[in-house]
Automatic annotation (TrEMBL):
Residues 14-120 form the Peptidase S24/S26A/S26B/S26C domain. This is S24 family peptidase. InterPro entries: LexA/Signal_pep-like_sf (IPR036286), Peptidase_S24_S26A/B/C (IPR015927). It comes from the Bacteria. It comes from Shewanella psychropiezotolerans.
Length: 137
C-alpha cells in the first residue's frame, strides 16, 4: 500500500469570503466613552440615591468639565465641601436625585456650590472597583 500526503485546509473552499475586504477598527473605550479627553475625569459613584435614573453604587461616572450645564443634567458638584452627584434644575437652583421624588435641596445664597462637570456616561461595574486601580500612580 502506498501513502500519499495530502495537505488539508480548514474552511470553505471554492468561494471567497464575502467579508474578505471588511476591516474592523480596533475597539477603543476612550473613543466610545470620552468626548473631550483633556476635560474628562472619572468618579466612582457611592450610594443608592440615583438608582431610579440608572446609576448604582460602584458605577463609574465619566464627567466632562467642558460641557455647559443644562436643566436636568446629572452633574458632579461640590456643595458646602461635600462632593455629590445629583440632578440639577438650573432654573430654580434645585438639586434632586429622582425626577419623581419630592425630596430636593434648594441652593441658597450662602451655600458654597461648584459644578465639577456634567456626567456624560456611566459605566456599570459588575465586580467592585478598587480605588487604587483608578489612580494614576
Amino acid at each position: 500500500m502506498r501513502i500519499i500526503n495530502i495537505s488539508a485546509s480548514c474552511g470553505i473552499t471554492g468561494f471567497e469570503s464575502p467579508a474578505k475586504d471588511y476591516y474592523q477598527k480596533p475597539l477603543n473605550l476612550d473613543d466610545l466613552l470620552i468626548e473631550t479627553p483633556s476635560a474628562t475625569q472619572v468618579y466612582l459613584a457611592q450610594g443608592d440615591d440615583l438608582q431610579n435614573i440608572g446609576v448604582f453604587d460602584g458605577d463609574l461616572l465619566v464627567v466632562d468639565q467642558s460641557k455647559s450645564v443644562v436643566c436636568n443634567d446629572l452633574v458632579v458638584a461640590e456643595l458646602n465641601g461635600e462632593l455629590i452627584s445629583t440632578l440639577i434644575n438650573t432654573k430654580y437652583r434645585v438639586l434632586y436625585s429622582d425626577p419623581g421624588s419630592s425630596s430636593s435641596i434648594t441652593i441658597q445664597e450662602f451655600d458654597e456650590f461648584v459644578v465639577k462637570g456634567v456626567v456624560i456616561r456611566s459605566v456599570r461595574c459588575h465586580r467592585p472597583v478598587k480605588i487604587e486601580e483608578l489612580s494614576l500612580n
